[in-house]
Amino acid sequence: MDAVGAVDPFIELDGVEKVFEVRRKTGFMRRERHRVRAVDSISFTVARGEMVGYIGPNGAGKSTTIKMLTGILTPSAGRLRVAGIEPSRERTRLAHRIGVVFGQRTTLWWDLPLIDSYRLMHRMYRIPDARYRENLDRLVELLELGSLLDVPVRQLSLGQRMRGDIVAALLHDPEVLYLDEPTIGLDVVSKAKVREFLRQLNAERATTVLLTTHDLQDIEQLCSRVMVIDHGRLVYDGALAGLHESGESERTLVVDLARELPPIDAPPPARVVRVEGPRQWLAFPASESAAGLVARIAAEYPLVDLSVREPDIEAVIAKMLHGDSHGKEVGRPVP
């Protein structure tokens, strides 16, 4: 595992574990209790102001880690601190210093207009009036929500609701923001707005961001550092380029030609992996730029259109771990 040192650690985990007891049916009217280790001796630090991607297959332990960092869950073992606070012991105190966005769950009140949810946050966090108005105006403008403040949350699109959740998480000026799948299900325009906002937030406020996602573009555009968790264990900590190299991941260039032609003569290591009529698929290393390959094809072939498809994170990790398929079950059994 590639280690990345952090100066002035803001988030600290030292040998953190989380074990759940689950009941499994073993026969008619019979159930046995099993202990499952969802997080297994994880240690890392995140410096104040860092934007870090925290990724892995489904069931790897990402959301469990986030829930321990917020104080929702208590670690079974190990030491965990956020801004010097032990989350599970001082959850209320910590709440004023963190913001959380769960992509598949909302913190907004479903039947109330968006602005009413923000007014409730104003009261709950006891945000000074001037600070609340300043933050609300700034966030609503940046995320283009001005025309939606009087719309009930249930009537918002997924992209609008996600932007609304981000505003709610930031009204009290948290020092750290946990984002769990913040762009899931969003269209291209909404994703671009969310990513640009997060870049600006980090640059202007030095907000620490821990991002979990299955969209590799989120990581590529926002994070200089990525951590990979698999079966509850931290298996990689370093730059995204290093992850691509470890997993030998590939991007795919989809090329539409003006007519059906033999496979494109691509310069190695790029290669044609599929041909269907005038459309061809070329694979090339994810760590390399597509610019040279695109320029050559455009110069030598009757190009109509093209697109680049990013590698799936689970495929990258599975390949990195010697082709094994993981994430089928939450955690792994405790010996």
From TrEMBL:
UniProt cross-references to InterPro entries, sorted A to Z: AAA+_ATPase, ABC_transporter-like_ATP-bd, ABC_transporter_ATP-binding, P-loop_NTPase
GO annotation terms (biological process): response to antibiotic
Keyword field: Antibiotic resistance, ATP-binding, Nucleotide-binding, Transport
Principal cellular location given in the protein's record: membrane
GO molecular function: ATP binding; ATP hydrolysis activity
GO cellular component: plasma membrane
Pfam family, one: ABC_tran
The ABC transporter domain, residue ranges: 11-256
Recorded topology in the membrane: Peripheral membrane protein
Subcellular localization, as worded in the UniProt entry: Cell membrane
PANTHER family assigned: ABC TRANSPORTER ATP-BINDING PROTEIN, ABC-TRANSPORT PROTEIN, ATP-BINDING COMPONENT
Name this polypeptide is given: Methionine ABC transporter ATP-binding protein
Species this protein is from: Streptomyces calvus
